[in-house]
């Protein structure tokens, strides 16, 4: 059922097949240098095996960076199931995935990602104990989204202090792209902090609710990135900072929850050249994995532990921004370097 693939960039990669359960997918462990590889399980339709493999390789590498940047004793891993979560997901398929995860003996821990819910995690948990992001149980950590939003605000305050010599967000204008699990909580916290909001989503009902609840201005989804605001907060999809959008951005700072905001590494340089302060996404959005990791690591006092690490997001971001300013480079360059140094230090 598990076939190991030799891929030089990753420690272990497996193809998973269980015809009886209708399961096809991949598990990738990018690095276990800092601890067991942790990262969510994604289920979606892929055009080909190659596309699914490319996704799991890319996402697992991203998890190594995110976990290291959050100061967690966890490596980077990810799993994908090929199929439509609305029609192909069955208890048998989830348990088969659980058995595949279990066969790795704790070197990979899973949790929710796109197409998965806490109920699915509970089903997987019938076949393996290496699963987090559950609603119930002794160490259950629940929905990570509010914690992710709090981490984004902590990072935003570090950016505000650097740009405007005050971390006070009162009166700051924030343009929020995407009002889903994280985006809504982000709007709530920013509203409570006295910020002014402009919001956009593909879902008109979400836009209307958020605008009403937090007195936000509404903007068309294809125009939110060019809103004249102090801060742009991408909280929807990846790749939104690219050669086409960057010239139109009118915010001074970018800080949001979305993964892989830069379409290509050189987009960090494009933002820097325009004098736009880009706060590296995987540092700003580490709150979710911090919350999940309390469950993985069976932390005795999770609320205190999570709080300390949210504080560390801000401190780490301040450090990254100070070094980037000193070297006149994008904070993305500094963040990548810091993580790579941390991973290398453990390799020897
Ligand atoms: P979600 O699926 O609940 O919300 C995404 C929202 O973005 C939806 O309301 C969707 O309609 C909207 N959207 C999609 N395309 C859009 C576009 N082009 N313009 C405007 N709105 C658009 O997802 P969630 O959980 O809120 O996550 C948001 C982002 O943050 C994702 O990139 C996710 O990978 C990332 N993230 C989430 C974490 C979490 O704790 N949920 C943790 C770390 C990262």
Spell out the key features of this protein.
348 residues, alpha/beta, 7-stranded mixed β-sheet, 6-stranded parallel β-sheet, 13 strands, binds 1,4-dihydronicotinamide adenine dinucleotide
How much β-strand is present in the residues? 15-25%
| Counted beta strands | 13
Shape by Cα distribution: globular
**Amino- and carboxy-terminal Cα gap:** 34 Å
State Rg: 20 Å
**Mean pLDDT score:** 95
Secondary-structure-based class equals: alpha/beta
| Bound ligands, each once | 1,4-dihydronicotinamide adenine dinucleotide
Give the SSE string. EEEEEHEHEHHEHEHEEEHEHHHH
Oligomeric state of shown chains: single chain
**Unreliable parts:** none
Number of helices: 11
Assign a percent range to the helix content.
40-55%
Largest sheet: 7 strands, mixed
What do these coordinates show?
With 348 residues, the protein is an alpha/beta fold. Helix content is 43%, strand content 16%. The protein contains 11 helices and 13 strands. Helix 2 (91-103) packs across helix 3 and helix 4 packs across helix 5. The longest helix is centred in the last third of the chain and has 26 residues, at 302-327. The chain is globular and about 55 Å long. Bound molecules: 1,4-dihydronicotinamide adenine dinucleotide. 1,4-dihydronicotinamide adenine dinucleotide (NAI) is lined by residues 144-145, 148, 177-183, 200-203, 206, 221, 235-237, 257-259, 285, 288. Residues 144-145, 148, 177-183, 200-203, 206, 221, 235-237, 257-259, 285, 288 line the site of 1,4-dihydronicotinamide adenine dinucleotide.
